[in-house]
Write a structure and sequence with these properties.
The chain is built from 15 helices and 10 strands. The protein is an alpha/beta fold. It has 3 domains: about 110 residues, no CATH class; about 130 residues, no CATH class; about 80 residues, Winged helix-like DNA-binding domain superfamily/Winged helix DNA-binding domain (Arc Repressor Mutant, subunit A), CATH 1.10.10. A 4-stranded mixed sheet has the order 3-4-1-5, covered by helices on one side. A 3-stranded parallel sheet has the order 2-6-7. Strand 9 and strand 10 form a beta hairpin.
Length: about 325
C-alpha cells in the first residue's frame, strides 16, 4: 500500500495517545485464532484460556468476529468506527447506529471474499436488537480480553509513543515516518506499507493519524474505504510489549494503587488531564486528583499550554515505571 503525502498532510500527521479499543478487540481476536503463539502474547493468551468463565463470556463476540473479520484482505469498516478514538462507549454507540446503507454495502463486499451465514441479513438490514446484541457482545469481550490488562498494554504503548515523540521533536514529521522503518518505508512523498492487497491512499490534505496497537502484528492495517478519515493502526515495537511493560509493575501498583499507577503509565508520554481521563475511562475530576498527588510526589510535572494542562513524567517517575528506583546512600 502506498500512502501519498502533501506538505499539508505532513503538518497534519499525528500519533494517538492510546490504542483504539475496537481495533484492539478485532486484532486481539486474530491473535487468539493463531496456531503459533508468539512469546510476547503467550502470557496474555494463557491467562485468558485458563478461565472457562472468561472464555464463555467471550464466546458470542468471538463467533461474530470469526465471520465478520476473517483473516484475509477485507473486513467491514463499521466494526472500527472513527468515534472509538473517544473510548469504548463512543465506539459501540457509533457501531450500533451505523446507517443501513453502509451496513448492506460493506457486508456485500465481505460476501465477495467469503460465504456468509443467513443471520448476517439481520445486521445488513440494521435490525436494532441484533446490533444491540453485537454491541453487548463486543463490550463483554473487551471486559475479559482487554480491560484487565490495561496497565500492561498502556505501559507498552506509552513507551512506544514516547519513542515516536522523540523522533517527531528531533526530526519533524519526516523523522517520525523514517523512524518507523522496521514496519514501513518512507520514500518522500510516499509511505510504503506491506499489505495484503495493492492499493493507493491519497491523503489530499487530510493528514493521517497513526494509532499504536498492542495486538497488531507484523504490518500496519487501515480502513478499506479511502474516503473515511485516514488512520493507520501500527504494531508497537516488540521490545515494548510484555517483558518491558511488566518490569516493576506489580510493585508500583502496591505502592500507588491501581488507578494512580495507570495514570502514571499513561503519562510515560505527555498528556493533558482530558486525555488521561479518556484513556482510563475515568472522570476529569478523578484524573485531576490523581495527577495532583503524582505531582506532589515529584513523579510528574505540570504546565499550562493555552487552555490545556499538560502533564509530563519526571526522571523519578520514569525510574519507578522501570522498577529501578535509586537507592538512598
Amino acid at each position: 500500500m502506498r500512502i501519498h503525502f502533501t506538505a499539508d498532510d505532513l503538518a497534519r500527521t499525528t500519533v494517538a495517545a492510546t490504542p483504539d479499543p475496537l481495533w484492539e478487540v478485532v486484532l486481539s481476536r486474530f491473535r487468539l485464532r493463531e496456531r503459533t503463539q508468539r512469546p510476547t502474547f503467550r502470557p496474555w493468551m494463557e491467562d485468558i484460556r485458563s478461565s472457562p468463565e472468561r472464555m464463555s463470556q467471550m464466546k458470542t463476540c468471538a463467533r461474530l468476529l470469526d465471520v465478520l473479520a476473517p483473516l484475509g484482505p477485507y473486513w467491514p469498516d463499521f466494526l472500527t468506527p472513527n468515534q472509538s478514538e473517544d473510548g469504548l462507549d463512543s465506539g459501540l454507540d457509533a457501531l450500533m447506529s451505523t446507517p443501513r446503507g453502509r451496513l448492506r454495502g460493506e457486508l456485500e463486499r465481505l460476501a465477495l471474499h467469503r460465504r456468509l451465514p443467513g443471520w448476517i441479513n439481520n445486521i445488513a438490514v440494521g435490525d436494532v436488537p441484533t446490533l444491540t446484541g453485537m454491541g453487548t457482545a463486543m463490550r463483554a469481550y473487551h471486559e475479559v480480553a482487554i480491560a484487565p490488562y490495561h496497565s500492561l498494554i498502556q505501559a507498552a504503548v506509552a513507551a512506544d509513543r514516547a519513542q515516536r515523540g522523540r523522533d517527531l521533536l528531533e526530526r519533524g514529521a519526516e523523522g517520525l515516518l523514517a523512524g518507523m522503518s522496521t514496519i514501513m518505508r518512507w520514500k518522500p512523498p510516499v509511505l510504503e506499507v506491506s499489505y495484503d492487497i495493492d492499493s493507493e491512499l491519497h491523503l489530499r490534505g487530510r493528514g493521517i493519524k497513526f494509532v499504536p496497537s498492542y495486538f497488531c502484528q507484523r504490518t500496519p492495517v487501515t480502513l478499506a474505504d479511502p474516503e473515511l478519515p485516514p488512520v493507520l493502526i501500527y504494531p508497537i515495537e516488540e521490545r515494548f510489549r510484555w517483558a518491558q511493560a511488566t518490569a516493576g509493575g506489580r510493585g508500583m501498583e502496591a505502592l500507588l494503587g491501581g488507578t494512580r499507577s495507570a495514570v502514571l503509565l499513561t503519562l510515560a508520554s505527555s498528556a493533558t488531564t482530558t486525555e488521561v481521563a479518556r484513556a482510563l475511562q475515568i472522570s476529569p475530576a478523578s484524573a485531576s486528583r490523581h495527577t495532583t498527588v503524582l505531582r506532589e510526589a515529584g513523579l510528574i510535572v505540570t504546565c499550562r499550554d493555552g487552555a490545556a494542562v499538560v502533564h509530563t513524567i519526571t526522571p523519578l517517575g520514569t525510574a519507578l515505571l522501570n522498577g529501578r528506583l535509586p537507592v538512598a546512600s
